[in-house]
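Let's sit down with a protein and look at its sequence and fold side by side. Go ahead whenever you are ready, and we will take it from there.
>
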Amino acid sequence: MSRPRASRTVENEIRRLGYVHVAGVDEVGRGCLAGPVVAGAVILHSDEYVAGIADSKVLTAAERERLFGEITGISVAWHVSIIESEEIDRINIHRASLKAMREAILALIPLPGFVLVDGFRIPELLMPQRPIVGGDRKSTAIAAASILAKVTRDRIMAILHDEDPRYGFDRHKGYATRDHLDAVNRFGYSARHRRSFRPPSLFDTIPD
């Protein structure tokens, strides 16, 4: 079965309207129990093509690492923004995700004239935008941003595992897998866990 590849159709449509720099933005880590939420933003060259760009979730870790280097090497601009677990608890995960995406976009030099967003409209953005549901499967720019965010976050979680290997962050990357839940039940939450979200299976069972 062939793997779906993202398309440049939407970006090209926006460019035909006169926008030179079209950015894609996406975030990863929204549904995790631990670790940051990370957003990537990227402006791809209209006349350069990176083979194999797709939704980061359908790629292997090796493919994502290779594409990370190729995307950052030829893009007009790229940036990743990181919101740590403490701030996620303070402002909630939805606002943290939107903040990470907004910060990633506004850090691009040059600033994009138009932004394609995976899923949600970003408030207080300075330029026009188009939210696309399932955008990481439909837009090359959004898919490229998802790869930048995913690789960056996976690297962070590997570092957190080295700091505290009890939870297996290198394997599940902070998501609520069975072995992660078992570790939390055994050891309680670490400083990297989000206190604002606890699965029902952990209610009244986790030592703080």
The two ends are 46 Å apart (CA to CA). Residues 9-156 form a domain with the Nucleotidyltransferase; domain 5 fold (CATH 3.30.420.10). The longest helix spans residues 140-163.
